[in-house]
């Protein structure tokens, strides 16, 4: 076992800044620019040295921690991104899932939701900020050490950009359909810079080089056809996939589910580097980028699809061009890069069943969320009576799990223990469910030790769900009869690449324990700045003898 888990009391304590910090020695050879690239839904087994572009170059020339994993159970986008640059597990960071349930109101809260007027999205309709995240990130540590440091984050998804940026970056930008382009919120800036408005104008900058249809070659006799029944048909199941719509909003929606959204994000990041002059000062700046096309394409078509294959090839090429641009811009020996991912993904369960890779006891590997939910609702309804006001349920679902509707339970005089006991028994009777975890079981570490540790790392005593459902390996719980997803504690969702490349890094393939929570303390050491005490992550050796 890599680390001894702290008790939940200790976990709650380290979520607050320690009174003292651990000092690191200032480095005279610190890089001018640190670049973190998070590729959403990138499994380690999809990265190899044969790729001709940026991904392959990082493998060939970088320090590749081949056995790196996520050390938390709920493998979702928001938790996955928040661990990268905070050095904390998602639970202590206050981000158990992409969403959680407020126990006082029974309302689902998005991980970067902020309804305050000073967090309204510029040009959009929603409020977004990092205020729900309980801990600081690398960019905050850098600005404390050197206020002149520039810190920016860019992503297609708002939660990815916000989680990477920390509490006080210079800006976090994301692609927003309502805002018709890249935007931020008033939490960061009072208005969009002129260069962002120009890039968004009429969508010209976003759609530069984007064709009307997304096409790709499929070899004759391929083991899997391009048109596979379990794939999504929202934008066609096979090439050509339409991109351009009648309106800019429609085109942006289609773009989001193609690899061209990654290329638009990299183009935006390149313009940001030029306009903000990142890496050109005496100190170190930080740019964090999250690229989401592998996730959107992977959800719709699966990681073995020809869509996913083409998306990876285009990402590889685009990243290679971006790295070459940064090298020329920042200068030799002044660029430090780390590549990682927020989670992996389960192959399409139908494809696993067809090829003999399924371990799920349920036939076909796909469990219907609708039918599972309907059965649970009916069981609770039969036991505790009808709801007073439709559609208030006894249990509220969020990405963190199932939580008791406490206002309703109090109104009806039903104990939460009764509701949870019945729900747990019903769910664990399903053949696709391996275990249902309660907060008490997580606190006591009951159950298989590895899973207990992972669920403890995801646990926030104030925000985690009352029931966390662990499916059997390779089972998929989905509201759809197509596509796939992630979120489990199994290695196909937890094994992600961690590769360092550039200034001061000795290339090599490194085996042994490593995790995404190790990235932030490793980068802090390379920059030469102080870090807060109580981090879950540990610095990784970037040279043969370490430091």
Can you characterise this structure?
With 547 residues, the chain is α/β, with parallel strands linked by helices. It has 2 domains: 8-216 and 235-345 and 492-532, Alkaline Phosphatase, subunit A (3-Layer(aba) Sandwich), CATH 3.40.720; 350-490, Gyrase A, domain 2. The chain is 33% helix and 15% strand. The strands form 7 sheets. A 9-stranded mixed beta sheet has the order 8-7-6-11-2-12-19-3-20, sandwiched between helices. Helix 2 packs across helix 11 (306-330) and helix 3 packs parallel to helix 6 (158-165). The longest helix is centred in the middle third of the chain and has 25 residues, at 306-330.
Provide a compact summary of the structure:
By secondary structure, this protein is α/β, with parallel strands linked by helices. 33% of the residues lie in helices and 15% in strands. It is built from 19 helices and 21 strands.
